[in-house]
Write a structure and sequence with these properties.
Layout (H helix, E strand, L loop, with lengths): L6 H43 L1 H35 L2 H16 L5 H12 L3 H11 L5 H7 L8 H12 L3 H24 L20 H32 L4 H11 L7 H11 L1 H8 L5 H13 L1 H15 L3 H26 L1
Helix pairs in contact: 1-2, 2-5, 2-9, 3-4, 4-5, 5-14, 7-8, 8-13, 8-15, 9-14, 10-11, 11-12, 11-13, 12-13, 13-15
Length: 351
């Protein structure tokens, strides 16, 4: 029986509408790719025109990686990979499952991953998620839920580098680290309270690794990962300098200056905070040049958010783990605002 005449126009409308949507999406992708290509070509031209300026900037980023990141992260990359391949993470998940499932509604392995991340810093937690997913210990959905909890900086960077070296106060470093960790845990607890507990999903069959290859694979993976981290730092150091040289950060700086104007008449904190949103370490160094409760609290925001450089590093691992960024990024921003508020409170109470 042929369909009613009134139904045919509706079908045609749906077909035309879907084609329009596909056309718009294809066109927007082409515009995005063309814009990115033009921006990359412009950066290449600038590097060729001003090699001395940006070569020094690249060297500064690599020096930061060499003196602060490499010694603190590389051993953790090797050791956490070894623990995962030896099955320690799997055994720890069985012990911690009851507590972690009640508090965060996550598998017990999440607490182990959080502990490793909180001890070592970015991007160890995201790398561990990728390793756990690769070894079949968690599912994509579990990795997504775990991603904000396992995205933290470490005490060596926050307390020693930012607190003692930049702000010249270990006490400030402790306040920053406590604000950062408490914010991450608190926000995850709140989100868990409004999340329904999902039935336990059976992860894929774990990939077995030959015992004689464990050390080689762990060291090889750690070397690759730490080199990638250094490359990200150098690239974003250059990018931040180019954006600053050509006043492309001026709109953001003006906005933050307007918000911070009652407390920051010079606008220096706004400029430092804007730099920190791109590269966290550089932003913290600039914020430390104007010490005070507000600058410390802004540093807590920058450390918790991570900056575009650290986010890009984590996203590379999150793609391997199947993490959905539309969940991770909003939670990460909320954690950063929470860290800012907690740091203001702690500075008022303990300074």
């Amino acid at each position: 029986v042929p369909p009613a005449p009134s139904a045919r126009p509706n079908v045609l409308l749906i077909i035309v509408y879907s084609r329009n949507i596909n056309y718009c999406m294809t066109k927007s992708k082409k515009i995005l790719y063309a814009s990115l290509s033009a921006a990359i070509l412009a950066i290449i031209v600038l590097l060729a025109m001003f090699p001395e300026r940006y070569a020094k900037c690249c060297l500064s980023g690599l020096e930061l990686w060499l003196y602060f990141v490499l010694p603190s992260l590389f051993p953790f990359f090797v050791l956490t990979a070894l623990l995962t391949k030896l099955g320690v993470a799997e055994r720890a998940s069985r012990v911690l499952s009851p507590l972690c499932e009640k508090a965060f509604k996550m598998p017990g392995i999440a607490s182990y991953c959080f502990a490793m991340s909180a001890l070592s810093g970015y991007p160890v937690g995201s790398r561990m998620l990728a390793d756990l997913r690769e070894n079949g210990l968690i599912t994509d959905a579990q990795a997504t839920r775990m991603s904000p909890l396992c995205s933290t900086s470490g005490p060596l960077f926050v307390i020693a580098s930012v607190g003692a070296a930049m702000f010249h106060s270990q006490k400030i470093g402790l306040i920053l680290f406590c604000s950062h960790i408490f914010a991450v845990v608190l926000v995850c607890l709140v989100f868990s309270a409004f999340t329904k507990k999902q039935p336990a999903a059976q992860p894929p069959q774990r990939r077995l690794v030959a015992a004689d290859n464990i050390l080689y694979e762990s060291v090889y993976g750690a070397v690759t990962s730490i080199l990638v981290v250094g490359a990200f730092i150098a690239v974003f150091y250059i990018l931040a300098q180019i954006l600053s040289d050509f006043y492309l950060l001026l709109p953001a700086e003006s906005l933050f200056s307007l918000v911070l104007s009652p407390f920051d008449k010079s606008g220096q904190l706004a400029a430092a905070f804007t730099q920190g949103l791109i590269e966290a370490t550089h932003g913290c160094k600039l914020l430390a040049q104007n010490p005070g409760m507000l600058s410390v609290s802004l540093a807590a925001f920058v450390i918790t958010f991570g900056g575009v450089s650290i986010l890009a590093q984590q996203i590379c691992y999150f793609k391997k783990a199947g993490v959905k960024l539309k969940y991770f990024l909003p939670v990460k921003i909320i954690q950063a605002f929470t860290a800012f508020a907690l740091c203001l409170l702690f500075c008022f109470l303990f300074q």
